[in-house]
Amino acid sequence: MSDIAGSAVPNYGGTVFVSYARADDERPPFDDTAQGWVAFFWQQLRWELTNAGVSQAELWLDRYEIEPAEDFTEKIEAALKQAKMIIPILSPNWVTRPWCRKELERFLELRSEEGSQVDSIVPVKKREAPESDVPIVLRNRETYKFFAKEPSGRLREFYWRGLRDKDAYFDVLGQMAEWISGRLQTNARVAKPKRPTLGRHIYVAAPTDELRDAWQRLANDLVGAGYSVLPPEPRLPDKAAQTDEFIRDALGRCEMSVHLLCESDGMKPDGSDEGIVRRQLILAREHAGAVSAFPRILWAPKWLPEQKERRDPFEVVKRFGTVSAGEEVYAEEVTDLSQWLRGRLDHKDPEPAQTLLVAGGSADDDDLVSMLANRLQFEGIRVVALFAGDPMRYAPSGVTALVPWGKADRASIDALLSSLSACASRLVLLRLPGGDEAAKRRFFREGTYSEPLDALPPDREAARALLDKIGISQSEERSRK
């Protein structure tokens, strides 16, 4: 007899409240085919959420939920109490409607004792509204914009008297639905306890102008989750000496730093030859040299605002120096970074399920070590990078050691494997192009598994496949980071 009927089926439900101005849902005059903006948006988002696997989620819109004879205030109050998230559809109409603002304020009041309120707000921009008219909680936030500004300054709306730019509209909508479904699924799996202010400080480095909105989003999320962010604004003092003093003092109060890497080093303070982005990273590395266990997160997103071409995150990081011990590279969207970072900060387990030690035989292979170590970081796995010349500081029992072999000579590799055998229960040598090819073809060492590779895995999916190939198992849940 099948046990399907008795299995537990996850319910990724919850009410998503749509707050909008009725003027934004009026249909164009003398046009029987075009829908109102909000009605079209609601129908398309409903389909996207179903497609993303959260069909149980209720997308609450008053025009569909309130009968003419019902009490408008009472029904909306009840919906706000049930809502897990709110979507304010920002426009010049929305910001001038007191009732719209009241819906947002009441939603936040009902969640004043919960963890992160910011994660529960999904701002949508139908049209640009004056920043001074936008509620403070929604300012300097990443939003889902359904319009674009052309070089001439003219506004191009994706939906205007009907669908005008199909690809742009559904690209934004798809990203939005993915974010909402991810939050609903996470909330369904993990009940968040009420959290007081944690009193923990995180250094989120001041970025270039291109990533200022992303900085604000990340800072808002961390503050909403109970952490303190330094610097409190994405700007630093103008003078070099004051800048360095401020950075060093702030780093000394923080437990980790996060660095947002764009294409440039950023503005140079007066009296300095280095931009603020590079300078903050240099000082964070100096601080890590004096204080053990000070992690640095290097965020090099694959996509930048207003850029259509994908970036190679590791090529970006190279411009800021070789990744050193204690640094991790993250390349996904800022919303993913926020969720991943808070999950890491909240992690209470003393040790992950297993440890991977990535070590290099010579300084010529340091790039291979840093790239492989960063691409192998998954939930439940601790990755330690050991560069050539580093002291053997990490010796957890039962560790699996991976050695990418590029340009190092055979003697260096043998010496490294001998030192690793004292702590590693398994040694895996990854033979890559370069160096002494003849020595690699003739390599054999008892107790070491050797695997030839054409190149390192280019992304995290390929890194997962590599672990499977060499027999390092991961649970399905762990691999879905």
Can you put this structure into words, describing what you see?
It is a single chain. The chain folds into three domains: 176 residues, Rossmann fold (3-Layer(aba) Sandwich); 152 residues, Rossmann fold; 133 residues, 3-Layer(aba) Sandwich (Rossmann fold). The longest helix is centred in the middle third of the chain and has 24 residues. Strand 8, helix 7 and strand 9 form a beta-alpha-beta unit. The chain has a five-stranded parallel sheet with strand order 2-1-3-4-5. Strands 9-8-10-11-12 form a five-stranded parallel sheet, sandwiched between helices. A five-stranded parallel sheet has the order 14-13-15-16-17, with helices on both faces. It is an alpha/beta fold and 481 residues long.
What structural class results from the helix and strand content? alpha/beta
In percent, how much strand structure appears in the residues? 15-25%
Rg calculated over all Cα atoms: 26 Å
Largest sheet: 5 strands, parallel
CATH architecture of the largest domain: 3-Layer(aba) Sandwich
Question: How many helices does DSSP assign?
Answer: 16
Question: Can you give the helix content as a percent range?
Answer: 25-40%
Uncertain regions spanning at least 5 consecutive residues: 1-9, 191-197, 348-352, 475-481
CATH superfamily of the largest domain: Toll/interleukin-1 receptor homology (TIR) domain
CATH topology of the largest domain: Rossmann fold
Tell me, rounded to a whole number, the average pLDDT.
82
Q: Looking across the biggest beta sheet, what order are the strands in? A: 2-1-3-4-5
